[in-house]
From TrEMBL:
Chief localization: other
Family label: Belongs to the bacterial flagellin family.
Organism this protein belongs to: Neptuniibacter pectenicola
InterPro entries for the chain: Flagell_FlgL, Flagellin, Flagellin_N
Keyword Transferase: no
Database matches in PANTHER family: FLAGELLAR HOOK-ASSOCIATED PROTEIN 3 (PTHR42792:SF1), FLAGELLIN (PTHR42792)
Annotated ranges, domain Flagellin N-terminal: 3-139
Gene that this sequence comes from: flgL
The keyword Nucleotide-binding is annotated on this UniProt entry: no
Keywords tagged on the record: Bacterial flagellum, Cell projection, Cilium, Flagellum, Secreted
A Pfam family that the UniProt record links to this protein: Flagellin_N
Compartment annotation: Bacterial flagellum; Secreted
Protein name per Swiss-Prot or TrEMBL: Flagellar hook-associated protein FlgL
């Protein structure tokens, strides 16, 4: 078998290129610390590496969600705690205001402090997070949850009762928001407390008064059917319809309030709906909308306290008795507000603890996954350095042998 000079040269060039490429690859592995530089280096390992990277990226997103939720819930907890401090102060002022030896000036001073507390409460209950969303608006993050309605003198809730959840683990979601409806609006009803303010919800040219009745029953009825529309035509016929336009049936006297002739019922100038008696004796031609608002939140309770302190009538025994009754109702309502506040803080604290525990779980999972990924992807430096030295020696030997072989020629012996 004859081997030509050209074959010798081409074969040595191929060997040198192959050895140089192998040495260069090892040098890249050493410089990057990665054993698998491209999928073709180890297809099976590459598939596992991609899987581990996705798991790590997903878990890191869970941890980022935990940071967002923890930041928001911590702000909520601080805000609600401040609101609780103000509610405690309102209870102190209510007890102080009940003191019968106080002068009108003393009660006026207490009312002024209550007014300042209302401003602070309004600011706290309309707190925004770092993203500019309101904490207590539910799913309506950019809608101011509490606004003052000049027409009825009450603070109204404009958000909804929704909560937003964040995924913080593969099978774990945590509520990162709370609605003001759940925290401030679901105070247990105080019997008799709602009655004093129902007349403020009526806007009508005629005179309709609301007295007595079961506030809780009426509130539930209005939640399902309200607002009610009441109208009296030129002939004196009264019609009352619910939010769907359906006629309302009174309990006493039992009648469907559609074309109810007032002049034929002069001996019964009242009718009862869901336990609440409405006085229609002064009704005249016109239209009114009857709705109820939840006056039990802390803002409106503070407004009621301020009003009682400013308008208290101590010149008569009946005035004193009414004042004490209203102050007792306010105290009871403040106790309900405090209990709801404690419940909200307990819930938030529990979720913050859950987030902390889940964050530790995520960190451990990332660590274990990184170790598994490293076993497939990262370079063993001891092995790589040994291989590099071997490849370097082999390349040097190839250069040396090629240098010797290329000088061989029959002409050297002629």
């Amino acid at each position: 078998m004859r081997i030509s000079t050209q074959q010798i040269f081409l074969s040595n060039i191929d060997n040198l290129n192959s050895s140089s490429a192998a040495l260069f690859k090892t040098q890249q592995q050493l410089s990057t610390g990665k054993r698998v530089l491209q999928p073709s280096d180890d297809p099976l390992a590459s598939a596992q590496i991609q899987k581990f990277k996705k798991e790590i990226a997903r878990t890191e997103q869970f941890s980022a969600n935990i940071e967002v939720a923890d930041r928001r819930l911590s702000l909520e907890e601080t805000t609600i705690d401040q609101i609780n401090n103000l509610s405690i102060r309102l209870k102190e002022l209510t007890l102080q205001g009940k003191n019968g030896v106080l002068s009108d000036g003393d009660r006026s001073s207490i009312a002024s402090e209550v007014g300042e507390i209302v401003k602070s409460l309004s600011s706290l209950m309309n707190t925004k997070d770092v993203q500019g969303e309101y904490l207590f608006a539910g799913n309506k993050g950019f809608t101011q949850p509490y606004t003052y309605n000049q027409s009825n003198g009450r603070y109204e809730f404009n958000g909804d009762d929704g909560q937003r959840y964040l995924q913080v683990g593969p099978e774990n979601k945590v509520a990162s928001t709370d609605s003001g409806f759940d925290i401030f609006e679901t105070v247990p009803v105080v019997p008799g407390y709602i009655e004093a303010d129902l007349t403020q919800t009526v806007s009508m040219v005629s005179n309709i008064d609301i007295d007595g009745g079961d506030a809780e029953e009426f509130g539930e009825y209005m939640a399902a059917h309200g607002p009610l529309t009441m109208s009296v035509d030129a002939l004196g016929f009264l019609t009352v319809t619910d939010k769907n336009g359906q006629p309302v049936t009174a309990e006493d006297p039992a009648a469907t309030l559609s074309g109810y002739k007032l002049s034929d019922n002069l001996n019964a100038p009242t009718f009862t709906i869901a336990g609440v008696e409405l006085d229609i004796s002064g009704a005249n031609e016109g239209t009114a909308t009857l709705d109820v608002f939840d006056q039990h939140n802390i803002l409106n309770t503070a407004m009621d306290l301020k009003e009682q302190l400013e308008t208290a009538d101590f010149t008569t025994e009946s005035g004193k008795e009414l004042f004490n009754t209203k102050m007792d109702q306010i105290l009871t309502n403040l106790s309900g507000i405090e209990e709801l506040n404690i419940s909200a803080r307990t819930s938030i604290g529990g979720r913050i603890n859950t987030l902390e525990q889940q964050l530790l779980v995520n960190e451990d999972y990332i660590l274990f996954t990184e170790e598994a990924r490293s076993s497939f992807e990262d370079m063993d430096y001891n092995e790589a350095i040994s291989m590099f030295s071997l490849q370097e020696t082999a390349l040097e030997a190839s250069y040396a042998s090629f240098a010797a072989i290329k000088d061989l020629s029959l002409f050297n012996y002629l």
